[in-house]
């Protein structure tokens, strides 16, 4: 443990000084009143977002469809499994640490939320949070584990915990959350843990760990088989968002057999799939840029964490798919997806490089051979190309935006379109103008169509 030395004291004073300018008396910071002031400050950018948010369940067309389904006693109800996004599952940690990096960090705790608990972003506390949520990687065993000793982390399971990642509701714009879809399904009679199943997973780890004996794929398979059995042998409708799509596609393409899929999977609803990666992931490990994260979080902390998460390395753009597309440029070089490995080595990012090597061939762009409904936003500016003034990647690059859903560039979202020609099972594909990566989960058409597909119907607008 670092002692309370003069450097720490100076940093404390400087940092508190900066906070002080915005938030009144710094001595209040750790009182309830001080915390409220801090949290209120953090809320500001989100109040606008929340005010603009629409509740599709109030729309007349959704209400009348719900009433029709409720009244019908002949409707089928296929079990529905919801697979979460990047950042999209709540994580909790239990601490029993011998030492901590700063004197103000907790050494012991019961199981407590660490993703997302907005108070973890308080000045200083964020340093403790970084240390607890960071991963280390063993490239031989493919195991991702907490970087610090004495830290255990697990995923909060169950439908209630995938409504919001942030129970305070402040960080709603960060990732897609299933609250609206859960409410819609429950309103027509779906029951949690009976025919409505949550499949959250640790979104920090790389795909190479999914195959481990108690890994994500083992759990997914058991969950789908359980949902099937618990509902009189009825096949399951799987819904996935964002990172959940490469996860589910890889599962369907490599972990289970064709016969297994024919038996257990009714259909697969792919929402905003980041099927072939995105340029932001590479820029995010190289440079202190914030991808849609609130700017009260230090971008250097986010970069450190991104460098420790295998999921980010897995989401680097797929070289076979993007070919000679230039994601990064400096005055002396252009970098395509095939240059990423060499660039990581040149930047001495050995840890990221190892994760990249073990994950880069685990992306399957191949048709999954199940009935697919693939829907995503389009026409939203999406950062995907990063131009640097020099060969120093520590500086912020100029960001070029391309078409996409705000987070995922269009070509990556569109991979599923090719499946129409590659499989005999039906593929329904649709792009939704102006619908964002996060907004898709509360989009009226999407909600209507999920209700229809889950009850054995077709999407409305097909
Ligand atoms: C199936 O039902 C059993 C008994 O109620 C329950 O323990 C199990 O979690 C259920 N499985 C799924 C996947 O819902
Ligand atoms: C899907 O089916 C096609 C034949 O229709 C087959 O060539 C392909 O290998 C199958 N894909 C998987 C993942 O099994
Ligand atoms: C990078 O690509 C752009 C556009 O194709 C080109 O104009 C430029 O000369 C290239 N830069 C280098 C250093 O090769």
Q: Report the structural category.
A: alpha/beta
* Alpha-carbon distance between the two ends: 61 Å
- Estimate percent helicity: 25-40%
Poorly predicted spans: 1-27
- Mean of residue pLDDT values: 89
Q: What oligomeric arrangement do these chains adopt?
A: single chain
CATH architecture label name = 3-Layer(aba) Sandwich
- CATH topology heading: Rossmann fold
Q: Let me know the number of strands.
A: 15
Protein name: Group XV phospholipase A2
GO molecular function: O-acyltransferase activity
Organism: Trichoplax adhaerens
Keywords: Signal
Would you kindly provide a written description of the structure presented here, covering whatever features stand out?
Helix 3 packs parallel to helix 17 (444-454) and helix 9 (279-286) packs across helix 10. The chain is 35% helix and 18% strand. It has 17 helices and 15 strands. It is of the alpha/beta class. The model is unreliable at 1-27 (pLDDT under 50). It has a single domain (77-454), classed as Alpha/Beta hydrolase fold, catalytic domain (Rossmann fold, 3-Layer(aba) Sandwich). The structure holds 2-acetamido-2-deoxy-beta-D-glucopyranose (3 copies). One of its GO terms (biological process) is lipid metabolic process. Pfam families: LCAT. It comes from Trichoplax adhaerens. This is Group XV phospholipase A2.
Please provide a brief summary of the model.
This protein is α/β, with parallel strands linked by helices. 35% of the residues lie in helices and 18% in strands.
């Amino acid at each position: 443990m670092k002692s309370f030395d003069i450097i720490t004291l100076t940093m404390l004073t400087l940092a508190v000084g900066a906070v002080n300018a915005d938030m009144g008396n710094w001595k209040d910071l750790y009182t309830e009143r001080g915390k409220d002031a801090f949290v209120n400050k953090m809320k500001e950018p989100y109040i606008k977002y929340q005010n603009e948010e629409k509740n599709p369940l109030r729309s007349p067309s959704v209400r009348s469809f719900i009433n029709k389904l409720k009244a019908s006693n002949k409707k089928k109800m296929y079990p529905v499994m919801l697979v979460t996004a990047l950042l999209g599952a709540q994580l909790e940690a239990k601490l029993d640490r011998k030492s901590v990096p700063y004197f103000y960090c907790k050494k012991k705790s019961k199981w407590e939320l660490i993703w997302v608990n907005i108070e973890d972003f308080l000045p200083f506390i964020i340093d403790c949070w970084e240390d607890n949520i960071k991963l280390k990687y063993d490239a031989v065993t493919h195991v991702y584990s907490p970087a610090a000793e004495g830290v255990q982390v697990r995923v909060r399971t169950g439908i209630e915990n995938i409504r919001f990642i942030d129970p305070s509701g402040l960080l709603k714009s960060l990732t897609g959350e299933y609250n609206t879809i859960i409410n819609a399904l429950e309103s027509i009679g779906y029951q949690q843990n009976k025919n409505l199943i949550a499949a959250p997973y640790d979104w920090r780890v790389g795909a190479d760990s999914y195959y481990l004996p108690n890994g994500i794929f083992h759990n997914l398979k058991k969950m789908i088989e359980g949902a099937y059995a618990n509902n009189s042998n009825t096949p399951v409708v799987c819904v996935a968002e964002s990172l959940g799509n490469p996860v589910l596609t890889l599962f369907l393409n490599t972990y289970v057999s064709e016969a297994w899929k024919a038996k257990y999977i009714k259909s697969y609803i792919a929402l905003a799939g980041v099927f072939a990666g995105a340029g932001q992931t590479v820029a995010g490990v190289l440079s202190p840029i914030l991808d849609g994260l609130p700017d009260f979080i230090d971008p250097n902390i986010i970069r450190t964490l991104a460098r420790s998460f295998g999921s980010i390395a897995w989401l680097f753009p797929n070289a076979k798919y993007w070919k000679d597309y230039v994601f990064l440029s400096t005055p002396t070089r252009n970098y395509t997806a095939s240059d990423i490995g060499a660039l990581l080595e040149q930047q001495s990012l050995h840890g990221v490089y190892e994760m990249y090597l073990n994950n880069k061939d685990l992306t399957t762009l191949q048709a999954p051979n199940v009935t697919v409904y693939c829907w995503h936003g389009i026409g939203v500016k999406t950062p995907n190309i990063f131009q640097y003034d020099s060969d120093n990647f520590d500086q912020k690059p100029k960001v070029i935006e391309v078409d996409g859903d705000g987070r995922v560039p269009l070509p990556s979202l569109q991979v599923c379109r090719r499946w129409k020609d590659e499989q005999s099972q039906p593929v329904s594909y649709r792009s939704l103008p102006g619908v964002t990566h996060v907004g898709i989960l509360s989009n009226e058409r999407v909600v209507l169509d999920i209700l229809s597909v889950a009850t054995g119907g077709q999407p409305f607008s097909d």
